[in-house]
Recover the amino acids of this structure.
């Protein structure tokens, strides 16, 4: 894989308000990559990898729902020749191409490793799409689309170290032209493992939560006071 140009990383360091164990935001890491597809075809795509951030290492994401893409994110996303649509599926062998691993568009609830995360055989297994998504072959997720980990005992959605800090990878969006997921909205359900209560919250992509913004403002004020003191 050749990463030809970094077009921006909309990554925020989120300072969580309070002591609760929370998913704290939704952020993208954006870049351009050139990868080889089945049969040797080279493909260049702009990529937005979507992550959820967290303030507690025990958090486990269960689903993303009510996704509302902004107009700039409603494009005909690239699907690798050996992929099976928006649900992750790498059949291995001759079907395991660079384009499938790093350039294909899909959604997941964790279950993938690497930076950037690789859609390796078995990665993201059990991911399901809700009816609003529009099906695995949709050009882009439909209004109020959602996806989920259909096998909660796998704990695929457990947070860990990612490109945006503590969090979990939940989707790759790849397109040959320009697009932007910023200001799209979504909601998330998470818990802290089997038998623990679920929690829910809504987020705007690439916008820190209000509590985080308030604390960042206080940190800036304290910094100015130290410099002026």
């Amino acid at each position: 894989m050749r990463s030809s140009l970094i077009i921006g990383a909309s990554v925020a360091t989120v300072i969580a308000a309070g002591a609760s164990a929370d998913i704290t935001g939704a952020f993208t890491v954006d870049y351009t990559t050139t990868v080889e597809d089945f049969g040797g075809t080279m493909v260049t795509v702009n990529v937005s990898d979507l992550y959820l951030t967290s303030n507690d290492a025990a958090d486990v994401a269960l689903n993303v729902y009510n996704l509302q893409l902004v107009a700039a994110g409603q494009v005909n996303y690239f699907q690798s020749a050996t992929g099976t649509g928006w649900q992750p599926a790498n059949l291995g062998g001759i079907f395991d191409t660079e384009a499938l691993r790093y350039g294909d568009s899909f959604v997941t609830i964790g279950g993938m490793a690497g930076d950037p995360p690789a859609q390796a055989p078995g990665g993201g297994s059990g991911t399901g799409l809700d009816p609003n998504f529009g099906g695995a072959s949709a050009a882009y997720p439909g209004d109020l689309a959602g996806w989920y980990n259909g096998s909660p005992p796998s704990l695929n959605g457990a947070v860990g170290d990612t490109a945006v800090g503590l969090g979990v990878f939940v989707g790759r969006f790849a397109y040959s032209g320009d697009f932007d997921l910023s200001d799209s909205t979504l909601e998330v359900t998470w818990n802290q493992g089997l038998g623990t209560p679920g929690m829910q919250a809504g987020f705007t992509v690439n916008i820190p939560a209000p509590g985080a913004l308030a604390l960042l403002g206080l940190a800036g004020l304290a910094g100015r006071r130290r410099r002026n003191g």
Q: What stands out?
A: Helices lie at 98-102, 210-228. The chain has one domain: 2-228. Residues 210-228 form the longest helix (19 residues).
